[in-house]
Amino acid sequence: MKAYLTKRYWFSASHRLHCDALSAEENRDVYGKCNNPHGHGHNYALEVTVTGQVDSKTGMVCNLADLDGFVHENILERFGHENLNTLPEFQGVVPTTENLCMEIYDILERGFQHAAIEKVRMEETMLNSFEYAGGREIRN
Fold it and tell me: Is residue 81 flagged as an active site residue?
C-alpha cells in the first residue's frame, strides 16, 4: 500500500530579490520592497512530502529519524541563517522562494534514499507559499 508522509521544518534566511539583467528601476518595479539593497529575512516553514510503500513490519513509509537527519544536515544547516544571495546555488539565479523550493527538492531527490520525494512546499509568509514536485503535477 502506497502512502504519503509530510514533515514540517523551520529555518530563517535572508535574501535580496535582484536580477542583474534588469535596470535598477525595473528591479524596483518587479520586486518592490524585496529589492532592498540590504536584503530582508524570512522565517520559512518547509514541508517535505515523501511517498512509498508502507513497510509491513514497521508500518511506515520511512523512518522519520532518517528524514529528519537528512533534512537537518543537507538543508537546514546549509540554508539556515544564511544570506541566500551569497550561496553558490544562487550565483546568477534570483534567490526567490520558488527557486529555493526547487533547489531543496533537487537536494532531496538526489540524496534521500529511504523514500521517493513527492513534493516540497515552502511558506515564506502567512500569505504566500510555494510548491514544487520536480515538474510533475502536484497532488493535493
Answer: yes
The yes-or-no answer on residue 62 being catalytic is no
Give which of 93, 62, 89, 61 is closest to 75, Cα–Cα: 89
CA distances from 26 to 36, 38, 81 (A): 13, 18, 28
Report the number of distinct structural domains present in the chain. Answer: 1
**43-56 tens-digit pLDDT:** 999 999 999 999 99
- Please tell me whether residue 116 adopts helix, strand or coil conformation: strand
Handedness of CA 78, 82, 87, 92 (dihedral sign): positive
User: Would you give the distance in Å from CA 27 to the centre of its chain?
Assistant: 23
Name the active-site residue from 26, 73, 77, 81. 81
| Structural domain for 125, as ranges | 2-132
